[in-house]
Amino acid sequence: MSGPGSYADELDGTLDGRGLRVAVVHARFHGDITGLLTRRCRETLAGHGVDEADIESVPVPGAWELPQVVARLASLERHDVLVAIGCVIRGDTAHFDFVAGEASRGLADVARDYDVPVILGVLTTENEAQAVERASPEGQDKGREIAMAALEMGLLYRRLA
Predict the structure, then answer these.
(1) CATH 3.40.50.2300 matches 31-37+46-150
(2) What is the average pLDDT across 18-29?
(3) What is the largest CA-CA distance in the chain?
(4) 3-state class of 54 per DSSP?
(5) Mean pLDDT of 112-125
(6) For residue 113, what are the contacts with CB-CB under 8 A and spacing of at least 6?
(7) Contact yes or no for 45/17 (Cβ under 8 A)
(8) Torsion sign across C-alpha atoms 148, 152, 157, 158
(9) What is residue 7's predicted lDDT score, i.e. its pLDDT?
(10) 128, 89 contact by CB (below 8 A)
(11) Higher per-residue confidence, 109 vs 4
């Protein structure tokens, strides 16, 4: 179940991901959250025809490292879409602002610099409860939404080629 107003519901069942090659780069920091997002993303991709062998899973330490690895994968030109999954929870220091902002900016740079869609799947929340709500399949199920965006963009790029 996605959150209210989610585009994912209207796309469900309409996207055929057969033949798409997807890299899912996921942060290990806040691994309970990112693990759930990653699992739901992979399940949704597979449920829409993406072969498990065509889903490359690439773990990285945290959200800060996502842009570096996504850029490296983009340069290899072996994927139709790149997904970046992370979670940054606000704490008592400015760490949140730096990590969340730079991860987002870095991923946007990759999306502009390479001819491959990059899906931003980094949760930025005030607390862990919000992160759990967004990641949970019984909540907002953002892992599913991330996958739906990956399918839509991968297929769009293929159509525009």
Answers:
(1) no
(2) 98
(3) 46
(4) helix
(5) 97
(6) 71, 74
(7) yes
(8) positive
(9) 63
(10) yes
(11) 109
